[in-house]
Design goal:
230 residues, alpha+beta, Aminopeptidase, 6 helices, globular
């Protein structure tokens, strides 16, 4: 069974070059209702960092609100509207962070990658590994012609992830996102009014020194749980 935007993967597995907290492999998969309490736990752990640049972190995060969000996310994922994924340790099954593809490009064969990792995973290269995995998945399995990433110009950590992935800077947009409220600023918001937009296209692949090595360590599974081929 082939993978496509209409029939996305049920699971993406990446064998890591270096173990992270006891896991040699990470799993990217659609969210399940049973993930809700573990997502809330990770958000609570990371709230100070998340509130710097993630508007959604300024809203109450409860198990009930996460369950409601996951119900929508499951429908959107399998109907091709949005592709939210959780990041999990293969051995520990611990929720490590959130990622996914979002339809924020003008090209119907383009998607925007987003990510956040829980604070205890910072500095281990996890966000870079996850983002690189989605880049390969997008180009090799979904047939994308564009993968983009947008982040606040004050978000140095996200800029570093983009650098390591090879994203090319294409522009800086003023007031691209909604402006923060006074309450958000008081609660730790550190963003400014500028969003940096960076992109990759298939013709950039030969210049990505990490690409083929990571591709060889990536396994993608269809909705029946069978390993897919490119």
């Amino acid at each position: 069974m082939s993978i496509s935007l209409q029939i996305p993967a049920s699971r993406i597995s990446l064998s890591l070059e270096k173990s992270i907290n006891g896991d040699d492999t990470i799993i990217l998969r659609p969210l399940a209702l049973t993930d809700a309490p573990y997502i809330v736990e990770a958000i609570d752990e990371s709230l100070t960092e998340l509130r710097r640049f993630m508007p959604w972190a300024h809203f109450p995060q409860t198990v009930e609100s996460q369950r409601a969000r996951i119900i929508t996310a499951i429908y959107d994922y399998w109907s091709g509207k949005d592709y939210a994924l959780g990041v999990f340790g293969n051995t520990t099954n611990r929720f490590l962070g959130g990622t996914g593809f979002h339809r924020r490009t003008l090209n119907s064969l383009g998607l925007e990658v987003g990510y956040w990792m829980r604070s205890s995973m910072a500095g281990q290269g996890l966000a870079t590994a996850v983002t690189r995995s989605l880049i390969v998945y997008g180009f090799e399995y979904l047939g994308l012609k564009r993968v983009q990433c947008g982040y606040n110009s004050n978000n140095v950590a996200s800029s570093r992830v983009n650098d390591k992935c090879g994203f090319k800077i294409e522009g800086t947009f003023r007031n691209f996102e909604s402006m923060p409220t006074e309450e958000m600023v008081l609660n730790g918001w550190q963003g400014d009014s500028k969003t940096v937009l960076r992109g990759l296209c298939p013709e950039d692949i030969p210049n990505l020194g990490w690409y083929r090595g990571l591709q060889s360590r990536l396994a993608v599974y269809d909705w029946l749980g069978q390993k897919a081929e490119t």
